[in-house]
Design a protein that fits this description.
Formiminotransferase-cyclodeaminase, Chain B, domain 1, single chain, alpha+beta, five-stranded antiparallel β-sheet, 2 helices
Length: about 120
């Protein structure tokens, strides 16, 4: 994706989920962000990084796309996390609020923090 395109508005979400020990669950959450409602890959959505901390039992999934698509991508990932992570058995040294702890969004190009 070229940042020189007119009107391109990019943002990233560093989705924090309460799972690190079961890699397949974290990967499925990341994959959910990449798919549209019909299960086909969004060509404009990217998972840039997955960082997992075993001690904290927490992973951060970096999702980047246009501002218009970010909400649906993050929501799909959150829904997968809610279905896959059992908070009754979740353990880790980092306190957690739920299957999804934090959903920070950062502007990348053509968008302001206020937006």
């Amino acid at each position: 994706m070229s940042s020189s395109r007119v009107g391109l508005r990019l943002a990233a979400c560093l989705l924090n989920v309460s799972e690190a020990g079961r890699k397949y669950i974290v990967e499925n959450i990341a994959k959910a962000a990449l798919l549209d409602k019909n299960g086909k890959k969004h060509p404009q959505v990217s998972v840039l990084n997955i960082f997992s901390d075993q001690d904290y039992n927490r992973s951060v999934i970096t999702i980047a796309t246009s501002v218009d698509k970010l909400g649906s991508s993050v929501l799909a990932a959150c829904l997968e996390a809610f279905q896959a992570i059992d908070m009754e058995v979740q353990e880790g040294i980092h306190p957690c609020l739920g299957a999804v702890d934090l959903i920070p969004i950062y502007p990348l190009s053509g968008v302001t923090v206020e937006e």
